[in-house]
């Protein structure tokens, strides 16, 4: 396919996605759910084809194919020739930039579609009324033709009470790959929240040895020869022994260099960006709905704040009518504002703000900082924590839900990046967002405890209830009451108690015989 045709087709495809509106409120209806899911699933298939074709054609590194034009050192050139060379170089660079930009947008759109599908797959369990077969997670993709494997189309949707999902964020994802546009629309506080979330998701694990470079001394044809060798890293392997197997008993390692990889919590920059944008815009949108009642609850005189904001806007509009220069506009606006504040009794003759207004302005800034900066990072942190707590290691290794490329487990360096929850933030989230988020003061220990228990039960073939395990850990390590822990994971306290007893058995075997049995099983 011609390059300009491929780019044109991709741009048209992304434009159509931007124009399609997903009514997320309708996903509780089985027909609309399958319709929206099918639309996103088909889009993802086409986007992955676009991405693969572009990468094969070299769109990943388009500048490598550009011939570097320049003036030969030994030949004098006419000005016209130099002009032609410059023009041609500019033309090829523009084409290379177009390739890079369209591939970037396709990758962003692909990441966003994966996240959106993850929300839907976590949200629903679809049951066939005829054969009672249930579909959840990736299995839902089998229902694209709205028919069960038994041939029946009599399907019902059940909301997955144990899933981790937030489908309201789907409409804020850069589904058409327009993440740069969405980033430019963020307010200063929203940009701060965006950077905060990306920093969390980018946190790298301590270096894992992936490959080794060695210089090996080998005796060949009656003389010693040095060879460079590359090996894949394997745990608990004697590399000198491996080299001797390959190059003979006289081979010696003279130099060894380890090459480490440092995977992030979510190891894809487009997924990081899409998630950060979705959570920030979702919190910002929610904040606009609830900020008025919050301000009324916390401010001494909300009417003064409303008047102050109105005067700010009037002063700015009047200043823009007088001048177009940004510096002049600021100076004129301040002059008009000071005059209007005094006329409305919000400042004294010396220009000092009314004391009550000054306190309220500080409180308003604190509330906005909470709503627009702290709440988005708290929400995504909780969703990630809940996903880790309520799923098994094997499940996370195969399926990452609404967090594509999420690592199945984290090290201490990564768990420490999650800030402990603030009481004031949790209070607002519970009251106005109606979320069941507990106040956790030891997030790092909580996650470390979950991963430690998973290591202990690995290979024991013991059947567990993952959400109940998460609730038990929240109760044991997070110091959250049994009743609240059960409520958070939509369980009965008895289910949590049952898993607590299993965990205690793994950690402290009841007898020497049980201890020996566990040691034998673990090798």
Explain what the structure shows:
This protein is mainly alpha-helical. It has three domains: about 5-185; about 210-260, no CATH class; about 375-520, no CATH class. It is built from 18 helices and six strands. It has helices at about 5-20, 30-55, 80-125, 180-185, 190-200, 240-245, 270-300, 300-320, 325-345, 355-390, 395-400, 410-415, 425-435, 445-455, 465-475, 480-490, 495-505, 510-520; strands spanning about 125-130, 135, 155-160, 210-220, 225-230, 250-260. A hairpin with a 2-residue loop joins strand 4 and strand 5 (about 225-230). Helix 7 packs across helix 10 (about 355-390), helix 10 packs across helix 13 (about 425-435) and helix 15 (about 465-475) runs antiparallel to helix 16 (about 480-490). The longest helix is centred in the N-terminal third of the chain and has 45 residues, at about 80-125. The radius of gyration is 30 Å and the shape is globular.
With strands numbered from the N-terminus, the spatial order across the biggest sheet is 2-1-3
Q: Which ranges are low-confidence, i.e. pLDDT below 50, for 5 or more consecutive residues?
A: none
Number of helices: 18
Total individual domains: 3
Q: How far from one another are the termini?
A: 56 Å
Give the DSSP E fraction (strand runs of 2 or more residues). 5-15%
Query: Helix/strand-derived class?
Result: mainly alpha
Beta strands, count: 6
Helix and strand topology:
Blueprint: H1 3-19, H2 30-56, H3 79-123, E1 124-128, E2 134-136, E3 155-159, H4 179-184, H5 188-201, E4 208-220, E5 223-232, H6 239-247, E6 252-261, H7 269-298, H8 302-322, H9 326-343, H10 355-390, H11 393-398, H12 412-415, H13 423-433, H14 443-457, H15 466-476, H16 482-488, H17 493-507, H18 512-521
Antiparallel strand pairs: 1-2, 1-3, 4-5, 4-6
Helix pairs in contact: 1-3, 2-3, 3-7, 5-7, 5-10, 7-10, 8-9, 10-13, 10-15, 15-16, 15-17, 16-17
């Amino acid at each position: 396919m011609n390059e300009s045709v491929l780019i044109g087709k991709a741009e048209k495809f992304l434009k159509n996605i931007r124009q399609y509106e997903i009514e997320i409120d309708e996903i509780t209806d089985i027909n609309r759910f399958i319709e929206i899911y099918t639309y996103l699933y088909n889009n993802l298939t086409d986007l992955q084809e676009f991405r693969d074709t572009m990468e094969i054609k070299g769109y990943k590194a388009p500048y490598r194919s550009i011939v570097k034009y320049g003036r030969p050192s030994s030949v004098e050139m006419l000005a016209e020739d130099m002009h032609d060379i410059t023009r041609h170089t500019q033309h090829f660079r523009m084409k290379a930039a177009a390739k890079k930009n369209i591939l970037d947008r396709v990758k962003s759109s692909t990441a966003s579609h994966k996240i959106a599908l993850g929300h839907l797959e976590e949200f629903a369990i679809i049951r066939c009324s005829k054969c009672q077969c249930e579909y959840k997670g990736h299995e839902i993709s089998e229902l694209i033709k709205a028919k069960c494997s038994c041939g029946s189309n009599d399907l019902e949707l059940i909301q997955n009470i144990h899933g981790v999902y937030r489908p309201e964020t789907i409409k804020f994802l850069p589904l058409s790959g327009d993440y740069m546009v969405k980033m430019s629309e963020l307010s200063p506080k929203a940009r701060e929240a965006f950077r905060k979330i990306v920093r969390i998701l980018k946190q790298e694990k301590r270096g894992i040895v992936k490959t080794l470079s060695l210089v090996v001394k080998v005796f060949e044809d009656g003389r010693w020869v040095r060879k460079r060798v590359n090996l894949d890293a394997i745990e608990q392997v004697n590399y000198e022994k491996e080299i001797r197997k390959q190059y003979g008993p006289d081979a010696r390692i003279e130099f060894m260099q380890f090459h480490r990889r440092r995977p992030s919590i979510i190891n894809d920059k487009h997924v990081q960006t899409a998630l950060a944008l979705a959570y920030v815009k979702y919190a910002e949108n929610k904040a606009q709905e609830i900020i008025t009642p919050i301000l009324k609850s916390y401010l001494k005189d909300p009417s003064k704040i409303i008047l102050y904001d109105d005067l700010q806007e009037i002063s700015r509009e009047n200043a823009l009518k007088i001048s177009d220069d940004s510096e002049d506009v600021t100076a004129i606006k301040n002059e008009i504002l000071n005059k209007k504040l005094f006329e409305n009794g919000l400042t004294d003759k010396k220009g000092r703000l009314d004391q009550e207004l000054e306190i309220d302005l500080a409180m308003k800034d604190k509330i906005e900082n909470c709503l627009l900066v702290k709440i988005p990072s708290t929400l995504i942190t909780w969703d990630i924590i809940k996903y880790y707590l309520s799923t098994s290691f094997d499940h996370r290794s195969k399926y990452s839900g609404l967090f594509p490329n999420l690592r199945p487990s984290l090290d201490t360096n990564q768990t420490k990046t999650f800030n402990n929850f603030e009481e004031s933030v949790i209070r607002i989230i519970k009251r106005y967002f109606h979320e069941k988020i507990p106040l956790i003061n030891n997030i790092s220990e909580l996650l470390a405890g979950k991963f430690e228990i998973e290591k202990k039960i690995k290979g024991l073939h013991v059947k567990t209830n993952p959400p109940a395990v998460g609730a038990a850990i929240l109760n044991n390590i997070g110091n959250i009451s049994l009743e609240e822990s059960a409520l958070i994971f939509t369980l009965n306290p008895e289910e949590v108690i049952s898993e607590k007893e299993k965990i205690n058995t793994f950690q402290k075997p009841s007898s020497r015989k049980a201890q020996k049995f566990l040691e034998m099983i673990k090798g």
